[in-house]
């Protein structure tokens, strides 16, 4: 729980005003019966009250040293204040209030230390988040420049990539056409093979027929040769007869 400045100032006003006024009123009021003795007591009380108030002020300024050192007991304070006789100052209540004030200040100091540590942790966390935010912004700008705004060498690479894609598409079309032409040529080759096999079969058949008709051909050839010889002989004889007839 945090302590507000108004509450701290109210503590300070309460202790300073109450202690100062009570000490001055009680100590400076002389006894109506014995003025000389009262004057002496007033002087002694004034010196003692100033010493006590100065010790309280020193205790407020040095809280850590006051907390480490034990406070003076109420009996000792009462013995100091009442050694001269007469009405004494209520130092027990003042000491209790002083202890309460010191305890309050100590707890407030601890709370302030804790809050300062938490604030330092928050500040460090904010700085870390700011650095992370800057890194993320830098990465975001780099990604935007990489994917959204191609310029320079990347633009040249993209143009070359588009050209290569276009050439690849043309080569794919040519490959498809070549595959189609190959399939067509394969079909034609199969037809030519069939025709060639048919021609080979016909040639074999013709050769067989020739071999079958060869004896007849040889006989016809021999008969033709014989007839040609007879024809020549007849022509010679005819020519001879013509010559004889002319004579």
Automatic annotation (TrEMBL):
PROSITE patterns: IF_ROD_2. Residues 108-247 form the IF rod domain. Residues 18-31 have a biased composition (Polar residues). GO terms for biological process: intermediate filament organization. GO terms for molecular function: structural constituent of cytoskeleton. Residues 112-181, 217-244 form a coiled coil. Residues 1-31 are annotated as: Disordered. GO terms for cellular component: cytoplasm; intermediate filament. Transmembrane segments: none annotated. Keywords: Coiled coil, Intermediate filament. It comes from the Eukaryota. This is Desmin-like. The gene is LOC113078658.
